[in-house]
Amino acid sequence: MATTKNLCAQISLDLHQKISEAREAAGLTTAQYITELLTEYFKMKENTVPALRRLGIDGAASGGKTMTNRKILYGYQIQHGELAIVPQEAEVVQRVTALYLDGLSYQRISDILNSDGFPFSVETPLWNKHKVKRLLENPRYTGEDGYPPMVERRAFNTVQSMIREKTSHYAKTEKRPALRLKAYLCCGSCHGRLLGVGGKGQRRGTLYLRCEGCGMAVTLPDSALLSEINRQMAEHDAPTEEPYTPSGEVVRLTNAVNRGLEHPDKPEDVVSLILRGASARYDCCPTLIESEPFNRPAEVDIKRFGQATRAGLAVSHIAITGNQDITVHFK
Asked: For strand 315-320 and strand 185-187, is the pairing parallel, antiparallel, or unpaired?
């Protein structure tokens, strides 16, 4: 049995009431509840203090005042009323810059920082790609606005050039109708979602897709996708032509012509019957429906996706195979 010692303390009535209510809710005795409470406190402290020290914002680094929120730019602290560099965080900033210069993505860099145990702040310790991006794009790390420099200007400029190069081929969704259709694209083999794939050297106005299910990859120009979707939608909406059905008059005249040809006593009467029969057949022909050619692929009717309209049924999904075969499925 562990050695124990009594611990007594005078506390306020309000605090005593709160502890009593919490103890009763937990179904513990006072001794058990206080023991559990203090044990959890010291466990939390053991896990938190090392993180604070890595951040450079423990009592010693912050002039005796513990910081709980990240209100100062990462890598800096207020010391004696002045901005000062946190050495441990400066190393992280420089490492992030170096990793990006080596070609790593924002997400990969954030994963490395999280796995290596470098918290962003106490309350939000985990890094993400957005935090990495903001760090890389912030010129204050080069010494602007009175911040002590921790990144060389040349390295910062190189990073900005790389960012512009990687994002130069991106276009806003509203400027690329094909991007508005990505939610409807699926694999023609396994019906898994087709996700966009990034990378260097990609052509403008081109979709680079990969199936999240089977891994099938396909590269498809926006114009080819939109043109084929437009064609299939127009074909789907085209009115059905009525089949030719001969009238009773056509049948009567046809029989009369056949009898006249068997006994051509009066050829002029047979010719008259043939002409009348031709006219009757023409009257039975269905009206020719001319479809307007769709030669403007950018004008896909986005309203047709997801909900039915007066124009016809809504589009359910669009299947694409590795051979760039496109099939529009309607609800």
From this structure: parallel
Report the C-alpha dihedral over residues 192, 198, 200, 206, rounded to 10 degrees: 70
Q: 317 - beta bridge partners?
A: 329
pTM comes to 0.39
Burial label, 166 (beta-carbon count in 10 A; 0-12, 13-18, 19+): middle
Q: Are 330 and 315 in contact (CB under 8 A)?
A: yes
Strand partners, 326: 320
The candidate with the shortest Cα–Cα distance to 141, out of 79, 78, 96, 82, is: 96
Q: Tell me how far apart the alpha carbons of residues 113 and 164 are, in angstroms, rounded to a whole number.
A: 24
Query: Starting at the edge strand that comes first in sequence, how are the strands of the sheet with 185-187 ordered?
Result: 185-187, 315-320, 326-330
Residue 41 φ/ψ, nearest 5 degrees: -60, -50
Contacts of 11 by beta carbon, 8 Å cutoff, 6+ apart: 19
Among candidates 106, 110, 171, which has minimal Cα distance to 137?
A: 106
Assigned token pair, 322: 């590795």
Q: Are strands 194-196 and 206-211 parallel, antiparallel or unpaired?
A: antiparallel
Q: Tell me: the pLDDT tens digits for 206-221?
A: 999 999 889 999 999 9
Residue 19 corresponds to which tokens in the numbers above?
Answer: 């502890």
Would you say the C-alpha torsion 233, 239, 240, 243 has a positive or negative sign?
A: negative
pLDDT digits (tens, 9 = 90+) for 54-91: 444 444 344 433 344 457 899 999 888 889 999 999 99
Give the neighbor-by-neighbor strand order of the sheet with 217-221: 194-196, 206-211, 217-221
CATH node for 76-167? 3.90.1750.20
Instruction: Give the three-class secondary structure for 284.
Output: helix
How many CB atoms are closer than 10 A to CB 98? 14
Q: Is the dihedral of CA 254, 259, 263, 269 positive or negative?
A: negative
For residue 327, the cross-strand partners are 319
Of 206, 204, 208, the closest CA to residue 217 belongs to: 208
* Type of residue found at 255: N
